Amino acid sequence: MSWLMAAVYDRFMQGSEEACLARWRAELLRELSGAVLEVGAGTGVTLPHYPRTLARLVLCEPDPHMRRRLAEKLAAAGLQAELCDAGAERLPFPDASFDAAVGSLVLCSVRDPRAALAEIARVLKPGGRLVFLEHVAADGKPERLKWQRRIEPVWKRLMDNCHLTRRTEAAIRDAGFTLERIQRESIRKALPIVRPSIRGVARKSE
To answer: CATH number of 2-203: 3.30.70.20, 3.40.1010.10, 3.10.129.10, 3.40.50.150?
Structure first.
């Protein structure tokens, strides 16, 4: 289904991008500097929000259909960046290569979140930041959580391994990051099962 996801993703997300996601991305990315890695860059919705002053920007996207659209947007944006086909669980970079890493609606769909976060921590410099925006389990709304659990088996198949009930905040903490800032908010114009979200900044220990 990945070719279909790549074809419809931007249109599917347009309402939420206009309602809140674009603003959230801009707020999270505007302070980045130095060498930055984005894992699961998808179709490139983050591209307009990166500072043009970055020393290095690497965009990783393992899906070839998504990566083709990412390359097209990158060329149109006139932004200097390196494209990489690696998945988050196995990043082809030396230890301590980046000042910051970005994960935007990606940890819901990686095959192994623990391995992905361990790899992100490995390639970050001591004190490096993980900037994240993810939809998560509706732990504060038991009825919605029930529906997430019911729908998740089919949803994963249709939506390229997207999980509805991941507890990403705990996973980030378990990976050894310190949460510096976190906000919990509903993604407007999204389906109810994917509205609960977290966004913020976590720091790797010095």
So the answer is: 3.40.50.150
